[in-house]
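My current task is to audit a protein record that another person submitted. Alongside the sequence sits a line of tokens, each denoting a local backbone shape. Where you disagree with what is written, explain briefly why. This is what I was given:
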Amino acid sequence: QDMENSFFMNVNDQVREVCSQLAKDPHLKGGYNAMGFSQGGQFLRAVAQRCPSPPMLNLISVGGQHQGVYGFPRCPGESSHICDWIRKTLDLGAYTQAVQEHLAQAEYWHDPLKEEDYRKNSIFLADINQERGINETYKKNLMALKKFVMVKFLNDTMVDPPISEWFGFYKSGQAKETIPLKETSLYTEDRLGLQEMDKAGKLVFLGVKGDHLHFSEEWFYTTILPFLQ
């Protein structure tokens, strides 16, 4: 069920469901740490921005794609016919209403050649990245984090472009040259508070050798666990 939902359940519904579960758990009243793997990274960031109660203290994104993806070089379960179907569907109409509402990957599909379509029709990523206007609550809630840790896999063959794991992306209008977070309008205009968080030492950028989600237990214990203590 969870595997199917990760492909076919509307991300906004997934976030609502998680927010509801968190709010009902009395153990989390004083706050909690959150860790998201791959697309779970940006899904949990949406939880931080939309649901401040209970408060998320630290967010650790392991291979999350915070500026979205433009390509599916190797989707999970490479031999699966689901992957082929997803690629064709995204190519044909990632920004149509039917695809946006029923394919999770379309909701963070970011086409740098069709920025206007993305801004207008992306029902998830364009919203949490403040592409259609500033939601001050989103900004305030994200800035309340103590640390926002982003892990990028230095040999990633699954995420296109890999720099999205550090909130960078393709320079608008083409799909060859990438720019880091600090050169994006999201940062320079500080629409999400990332620039302010960066100056306050709240953003942590970690790189780990290996392909997507490939890391050792030792790396995890020595590098990630300290942020949870």
